[in-house]
Amino acid sequence: MQWRKHFTGVAFSLVFVVSYFTNKFVLSVLKFTYPTLFQGWQTFIGAVLLLLSGKLGWLEMSRVTRSAALYWLPGSLLFVGNIYAGSKALSHIDIPYFFTLQNSSHVVSSVISTVVHREKVQRLTFISLCFMLLSAINLPHYDPQFDYSGYLWAVGHLFCVGAYRVLQVRYKPNNLSDLELQCINYLFSVLLLAIAAHPTGDLMGALEFPSLMSYTFHCGCCASALLGFLLLLATVKLKSGFSLEHFEVWIFISKVTAMSLSPFVFNMDVNAPSLICVVVSHVAEALLLYSEREPQLGRG
Question: What does pTM read for this prediction?
Fold first, then answer.
């Protein structure tokens, strides 16, 4: 029934918003800026819960072969880059600005698809991508709390997100479901982040972290890991019940909701030019979603 589909979308949005707010709280308010450990913890819990749910028959998951895991190795590397750089960027950048920069990943995806796969870009799509890029380029000049390292990590994050999006659409193995693909990502992430924890200095820094034994810190980390797993389940459920276009609309709604609520939860310095960048970027994203639906509406 239609109301059940909308309920799934609302549930996805709720988990999306709370998940980002929890991560932002741990990274910025508690200042736990050790991404190898923070993301390693999240992916470890995600992998354990996925494998356990599959073993108990709660989720439909098949055994992943070694060849399939090796084939998806580039995707897993991009996934690690996505969560690592995203974690570093989110710790320094406010949520509305973070999403404004993240929108530029559509530009990366479009460039890759155009250059590698010779896809033609529609005029409306090109216009929306230009506005997203212009908003992201101008935002650092107007951000009252500009942080160079945060924006540098955001650039790495959006490149990984854009490349991963193309890889997921073009090169995803047909014999692997979204859950199995994410399980590979989780297991590879745990391995790589565990190896990187000591060379990056995150392990020693975390041992000296002032709030390490804090009840609030433990609750925040546990909540972030559980919410990450729930967001994965909500994403898979939403994808199975909606077309890709409708799924992207729900992501857009979730981001706008998170941006609208974030000033009431976190301290933010906002001025008119930076707010214009945020608004223009997300109006352009709405235009991009419309341009992707337009051919299908025309055929209908």
Answer: 0.92
